[in-house]
Design brief:
single chain; mainly alpha; 17 helices; 80% helix; disordered N terminus
């Protein structure tokens, strides 16, 4: 009898482990529909497995099924109401839903978004993600429904106490959003000095581009390259040079280098580098080279409208 029971139970255990692992693998490989199917089948018979429920919520979220994601995350809160991360995930799903519906419908959701993030921050004094969410939420909400720069700065200060880099980036974000670029620049530079991650440099570069300061943007990218040896930085420099018609020789060199050293991990397809080269050659009035490059871009990615529009224009 004992052997018989073990034989019955053993396949169930293996199934449980395999289903969760499969779900994790599908999500890691961005096969979210497969993860959803696998995890629904498992959760149906294991309603108290919080790991599987959370993974199912994640699978829904990756597919922008915000209502379904929120429903799964709320099950987690029902099981563990003092988990800050579960409250944060509910807030995130509802927040994304609010962004996907019309403004009138969003107004009915914002209260729940705010309360979820606030609860997460209350439950965990070191929850960085919840505080970042509150920084962005209070800056983006109109004052009439609770938006407040002062409150946003309060959570940025809390972030700074937890992580100098996050605090400086949050304050940079606040001042950039509030159209105070000098202060935003100062805080992004502080973040670079303390942390110096690719994210820190990217924020500064994006600010310079937004403020129509291409030379500063190129300088920041080059500074990033001293610390982070990435081929992608060559594309970034070339893009800025092409977009703003500045330092064209440097832009050409960087884009050629990007193409010569390209690998899939660089992210941006070579076609886009050829498009940027075509822009540079057009700026230089070298139409033959511009046509050669844009034809290469179109051959690789024939369905990109901007490529064809560029070719038609020259």
């Amino acid at each position: 009898m004992k052997t018989f029971l073990i034989a019955l139970l053993f396949p169930v255990t293996i199934f449980a482990q395999t289903s969760i692992e499969k779900g994790q693998t599908y999500i890691a490989n961005k096969q979210f529909a497969k993860a959803e199917k696998e995890l629904i089948a498992y959760v149906t018979y294991h309603e108290d497995n919080l790991q599987a429920i959370e993974l199912l919520g994640d699978a829904y979220g990756h597919q922008k099924k915000w209502d379904e994601a929120a429903t799964e995350y709320k099950k987690l809160i029902a099981a563990k109401p003092k988990s800050a991360n579960y409250h944060y995930k509910v807030g995130g799903a509802l927040g994304m839903k609010a962004l996907s519906v019309n403004k009138i419908s969003a107004l009915g959701i914002i209260g729940d978004v705010k309360s979820s993030f606030l609860k997460a921050a209350e439950l965990d004094a070191s929850h960085i993600e919840a505080r970042w969410a509150l920084v962005e939420l209070y800056m983006q909400l109109p004052g009439i429904i609770g938006g407040s720069k002062k409150t946003s700065l309060k959570y940025a200060n809390q972030l700074e106490n937890l992580s100098k880099v996050d605090g400086y980036l949050a304050k940079g974000y606040i001042y950039e959003y509030d159209d105070e670029p000098e202060l935003a620049e100062a805080y992004y530079l502080k973040a670079i000095k303390v942390g110096g991650s690719i994210t820190c440099y990217d924020k500064l570069v994006a600010l310079y581009e937004k403020e129509n300061q291409p030379d500063k943007a190129i300088g920041a990218i080059e500074s990033s390259g001293v610390k982070h040896q990435r081929n992608g930085l060559n594309y970034q420099i070339g893009k800025v040079c092409a977009d703003y018609n500045v330092q064209l020789d440097k832009g050409e060199r960087c884009l050629v280098k990007y193409i010569d050293n390209y690998s899939a991990k660089d992210g941006v397809p070579k076609a886009w580098a050829n498009y940027r080269l075509a822009q540079i050659y057009k700026h230089k009035s070298d139409i033959n080279k511009a046509l050669t490059c844009i034809n290469s871009a179109i051959a690789e990615l024939p369905n990109i409208d901007v490529f064809q529009d560029f070719k038609d224009d020259i």
